[in-house]
Structure formats: structure tokens, C-alpha cells
User: Which sequence fits this backbone?
């Protein structure tokens, strides 16, 4: 009988620890929405619709941008575009995402940059409208700005 009580006590203790571990485990960070659309103008380089895709892991976040409205004029090597994406933060300020990640792009291919890395805090609400994307390609700086708020809405981390 004593062995049975010890086994039962051990099982209850293990169950209590498991429940405590679940209660104290950090929640998974998620950004919503995961993608949004903007209309951007890049001056003499063109403009049009672009899609932003966001991911989050804790305070680290990445943003990628792809636009079929803007195409590569020449062949661009992988990871050769230096990009800085500045996102407007609700309530003021901004958050910068940067990096040199891009796929190989042949003439006529859609422009694509990212993932670009940045740091966020829980509750940040970020929109491309009010920010900008600067890309340095072969020494030429291309600056794109959104002409209105992103749809369906800002990224909330």
C-alpha cells in the first residue's frame, strides 16, 4: 500500500510540475496580419502595388517586400541590394528593418527584397505609410514611399 501511495504522490507531483511549466511558458509571438499590400511610388523608377510579409520571433522581426509592378531593369545578383525599410510606428517614431537579402533578379523580374531584420516590442503597430524603402543597387539609391496606409491594416506585433 505504501508503494502505491508513493507512486500516486509522484504522479501528482509530476502533473503539477507539468501544469506549472505550461502556465509559465512564454507565449508564441505572432504578428497580424502576416501580409499587407501597399501602393508605392519610386520616382523615376516606377511604382505600383507591393506586398509586405512579416514574421516575428520574440523581439526579432523580419519584413520582406515583393512588387510585380516594379521590375529589375538589369540582372541583379543575389544579396547585392542594400535595403533599409523604415516603418512608421503608431503614436510616433519609426522602426528600421535592414539587410542585404534579395534573390537573383533577371531583367523584367519582379523586385523582391528581404527578409530585412528589425527589433520590435509587444504591441508595436507599424505601417509602411509614413515610412520609406531605400534600396542601393549598383551604387544608385532608389527611394520608394507608400501613397496610403497598407491594407488590410498595420502590422501589430
Assistant:
Amino acid at each position: 500500500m505504501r508503494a502505491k501511495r508513493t507512486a500516486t504522490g509522484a504522479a501528482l507531483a509530476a502533473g503539477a510540475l507539468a501544469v506549472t511549466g505550461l502556465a509559465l511558458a512564454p507565449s508564441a509571438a505572432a504578428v497580424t496580419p502576416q501580409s499587407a499590400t501597399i501602393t508605392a511610388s519610386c520616382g523615376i523608377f516606377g511604382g505600383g502595388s507591393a506586398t509586405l510579409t512579416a514574421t516575428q520571433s520574440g523581439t526579432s522581426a523580419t519584413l520582406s517586400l515583393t512588387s510585380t509592378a516594379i521590375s529589375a531593369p538589369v540582372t541583379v545578383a543575389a544579396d547585392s541590394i542594400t535595403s533599409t525599410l523604415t516603418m512608421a510606428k503608431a503614436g510616433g517614431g519609426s522602426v528600421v528593418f535592414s539587410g542585404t537579402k534579395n534573390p537573383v533578379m533577371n531583367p523584367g523580374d519582379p523586385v523582391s527584397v528581404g527578409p530585412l531584420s528589425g527589433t520590435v516590442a509587444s504591441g508595436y503597430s507599424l505601417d509602411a505609410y509614413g515610412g520609406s524603402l531605400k534600396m542601393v543597387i549598383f551604387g544608385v539609391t532608389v527611394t520608394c514611399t507608400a501613397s496610403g496606409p497598407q491594407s488590410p491594416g498595420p502590422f501589430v506585433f
In short: The CA atoms of residues 67 and 148 lie 16 Å apart. The chain has one domain: 35-150.
